[in-house]
Specification:
Layout: H1 6-10, E1 16-18, E2 26-29, H2 47-57, E3 62-66, E4 77-87, E5 91-99, H3 101-113, H4 120-130, E6 136-145, E7 150-159, E8 164-173, E9 177-185, E10 187-190, E11 196-199, E12 201-209, E13 216-226, E14 230-231, E15 246-263, E16 291-307, E17 325-339, E18 350-358, H5 361-369, E19 385-395, E20 398-407, E21 418-428, E22 435-442, E23 447-454
Helix pairs in contact: 3-4
Length: 457
């Protein structure tokens, strides 16, 4: 099924969206925005660990990425590689590097085009571009296993002349819950329009439950933002209210259910579907069962701003008049259809997922009561969204995938109904039960990257 937990994670500060802007390969979705498309949700494996795995199991030593930068002279195309790693039973350390060849070529070309007479100083000027620090970025990532159920990680990255980022995370696994503490200086957020915002300080502590047999999941947490958000690539507009300084406590609960219309089960008693010596081993164990099914989730959330500063530099005070307490309902329903078991080399896998999201029931109700009139001040989550996912096997482990998000309200307006679209080529790693290398591109954000994803449909 399409990711139903996207709904509850979007209400908090802990939904990671894939992005080449950071060395971790992700940015945070802004709470209160429409749910992101599933194809944009970041890999569960951090970027340095992806590089380490891909380097050890494939001929790829560098991974390309494409992302508009500000200032633009930093170059949009970059190559990312693992420079050094150290691994022990309780500690992992990795050093990664990034190089921007487009900027180097452009500067050398500009240098040579301005040459009138060749002399030794020209060689020195051209050589100087190779050691320009704006061409390179460096990242360090370290993970420690403090106990069998507790781990801590720290990362730091320097992006040429753009500054530094640091992040600290402590994760503790309980029998039925996950406890996470995270702090970042600064934290990068991305809104549903593809605009990036830097929050100078972001600290959060969250307790989330695992899905129980009854289908109930809950999530509670406290989040603190410090400093004034700054735009990374937006030229106009005010920062989202949820990113402004303050201390917020949140809680959410959801109920999930799923029903099969039909499903062709794999006969696991006669053979192991993960045995690579079998000819009918699926390329991905999570895509091995043809089916038609419907699933859904519904839930509610509440938030309380414990600390809400009155004066924020450079921001209209009327815009930060956030309610001390707010509550809302949200929900999603998804239909999934799959043909093929993804075991043959051709025409053995086709899948379509359609998910209808209502990010904010209160905002949608106001829209209905107003007669669907356009309002410049209405919430972005007022309109239901339809997420469509199409997957088609090309040959063997290669699958083409297209994710799109359609605003149902915009279908009747002047603007285009398609809010987001991501296309990708997936290469399933048959050596793993469920793992794939994904090369994706987002025309809206003008970004793309190659990454490793595990345990995702």
């Amino acid at each position: 099924m399409a990711k139903l937990r996207t709904a509850i994670d979007s209400a908090f500060f802990d939904l990671n969206v894939a992005s080449p802007q950071t060395f971790d390969g992700c940015a945070r979705s802004i709470p209160g925005d429409p749910f992101p498309v599933d194809g944009s949700v970041a890999s569960r494996l951090l970027r340095p660990l992806q590089l380490s795995f891909i380097r050890a199991n494939s001929p790829l030593w560098v991974l390309p990425s494409f992302s508009p930068t500000s200032p633009t002279d930093l170059g949009s195309f970059s190559l990312h590689s693992l420079l050094f790693r150290f691994a022990s039973p309780t500690w992992w350390l990795g050093v990664t590097g990034q190089f921007r060849p487009r900027k180097l070529i452009a500067e050398i070309k500009n240098e040579i085009s301005n040459i009138d007479d060749f002399d030794i100083s020209i060689v020195k000027d051209v050589t100087r571009h190779f050691i320009n620090k704006s061409m390179f970025s460096l990242g360090i990532h370290s993970e420690f296993a403090l106990t069998s159920s507790t781990s801590a990680s720290f990362s730091a990255e320097a992006h040429g002349e753009k500054g530094r980022r640091q992040k600290l995370m402590v994760y503790h696994k309980l029998p039925e819950h996950d406890l996470t503490f995270e702090a970042a200086w600064p934290q990068l957020f991305v809104d549903h329009k593809g605009k990036y915002w830097d929050v100078p300080e972001s600290i959060s502590a969250d307790l989330s439950s695992l899905v129980s047999e009854s289908g109930i999941r809950y999530h509670i947490g406290i989040h603190k933002n410090g400093g004034n958000p700054s735009s990374v690539n937006a030229t106009d507009g005010s920062p989202p209210l949820s990113l402004l300084p303050g201390l917020c406590a949140k809680a959410a609960v959801t109920y999930e259910m799923s029903r099969d219309f039909w499903r062709e089960k794999t006969d696991s008693e006669e053979e192991d579907i993960w045995d690579n010596n079998k000819k009918n081993t699926p390329y991905d164990s999570r895509l091995a069962e043809p089916h038609a099914a419907i699933s859904g989730t519904m839930g509610g959330s509440c938030a309380s701003w414990i600390w809400n500063p009155e004066n924020i530099v450079g921001t209209d005070s009327r815009e930060v008049n956030r309610s001390r307490f707010s509550a809302d309902l949200f929900g999603s329903v998804c239909y999934s259809y799959q043909e093929g078991k993804f075991t043959k080399d051709f025409r053995d896998f086709t899948r379509v997922d359609a998910r209808l999201d209502i990010p904010s029931a209160s905002a949608f109700a106001k829209k209905v009561f107003s007669g669907f009139k356009r309002d410049v001040n209405e919430q972005a989550a007022a309109s239901p969204r339809l997420n469509l996912i199409f997957q088609q096997q090309i040959a063997g482990p290669f699958v083409f995938r297209a994710d799109s998000r359609v605003s149902l309200m915009s279908m009747f307006g002047k603007g285009g109904p398609i809010e987001d679209f991501i296309c990708s080529i997936n290469y399933s790693l048959k050596s793993l039960p469920s793992g794939k290398i994904v090369a994706w591109f987002s025309p809206k954000r003008k970004e793309g990257m190659v990454e490793l994803r595990l345990l995702e449909f």
